Amino acid sequence: MLSDIENFLFGDNVAHDLHSLEKKGMTWVITIAPTGEKTHYRAFVFTNVAQEYEQLLLEEDEVLEYPLPIIGFESRPKENGKWRFLLNAGDVEWAFTANWPKKA
After folding, report:
1. How far apart are alpha carbons 9 and 77 in whole angstroms?
2. 3-class SS at 5?
């Protein structure tokens, strides 16, 4: 069963890859596409982002390379109108709070 954010971003139950995550202050932009697709990219903007943590599960000499397979993307509403998100992609996990994203 897909989470609320997965339903919004993916629109279907197809595996997706994270092609980029750009952090610009309190705004993050993610670009995703169905796994194996080279032409159907979609970008989404998260505003008022507060990062809780970023966990890289890489060896010291490894470099993070996109695209990363999205393993899971969870969302939970908070009492202040924001959302808490947990994004697992490849060997990285991001936890953050933000407004609900908008399509870029």
Report:
1. 16
2. helix
Which residues have C-beta within 8 Å of that of residue 3, sequence separation ≥ 6? 72, 73, 74, 75
Q: Residue 31 corresponds to which tokens in the numbers above?
A: 């670009």
> What CA–CA distance (Å, rounded) separates 28 from 50?
10
DSSP reduced 3-state for 42: strand
What are the tens digits of pLDDT across the range 60-93? 888 889 999 999 999 999 988 999 999 999 999 9
**pLDDT per position as a tens digit, 8-32:** 999 877 899 999 999 999 999 999 9
**Residue spans per domain, the chain:** 4-103
